[in-house]
């Protein structure tokens, strides 16, 4: 939730998404090991066809926007995510659990593929598909891990392709993952297992409600910063 907005603030929008994907894929491996088998596999069946289409569309969109426009899109996704988290209980409280289907899963998959490829921001869309099913907590988390593992690994070859290597019209002219982004990813990679361990420790030590309140506040502030492009350096004492 917080990784993409913070990484965009540090590295800029295009470099950030390229640096992040190898790290996300690595984190997926640790997460899927921890939640192995604790998922509803049928959700992947309903979402995956749309995800593939959405990834292809999302890859084409990345090269068509300026850095400022990408910042705005990622910021809006961050704010929308927090807003959704705040209202989701009220929205779904009156609704009974629904049975997932391709009719709803494919459009959600397309939206997930586009937002995830564009800004690693498919969290709200996937949540909208999973939350109404009223899954047990562990099953919900395990299913989310499974879905995002597939999404991220499907994106990986598209991020690496470059028109200089493969002359396909829908491939961006510059690879999203390149030598520069890989070097930064490699520098950050060793701390991913530490982050996984720290996340498990924090889950045991802190209340879930309090922890997520802090995370939502930080995501919201990072999103607002990306939208309005505040100069945060002015807040730092000199």
Brief sketch in words of this structure:
The chain has 238 residues and is an all-alpha fold. It contains ten helices and no strands.
Protein model, in words:
This protein has about 240 residues and is mainly alpha-helical. It has one domain (about 5-230). The chain has ten helices and no strands. It has helices at about 5-10, 15-35, 40-60, 65-95, 100-120, 125-130, 135-160, 180-190, 190-205, 210-230. α2 (about 15-35) packs across α7. The chain is globular. About 30% of the residues are buried. Residues about 170-175 have low confidence and may be disordered.
Any chance you could write out the topology, listing elements then pairs?
Blueprint: H1 3-11, H2 13-34, H3 42-62, H4 67-93, H5 102-119, H6 123-130, H7 137-160, H8 179-188, H9 191-205, H10 208-228
Helix pairs in contact: 1-2, 1-10, 2-7, 2-8, 3-5, 3-7, 4-10, 5-6
Q: Flag low-confidence runs.
A: 170-174
- Helical run tally: 10
Overall mean confidence score, pLDDT: 79
What summary fits the major beta sheet? none
- Tell the overall outline: globular
CA(first)-CA(last) distance: 31 Å
Multimerization state: single chain
SSE-based structural type: mainly alpha
% residues in beta strands: under 5%
Helical amount among residues, as a percent range? over 70%
Rg computed from alpha carbons, rounded to a whole number of angstroms? 18 Å
Q: What is the string of helix and strand elements? A: HHHHHHHHHH
Domains, number: 1
Give the beta-strand count: 0
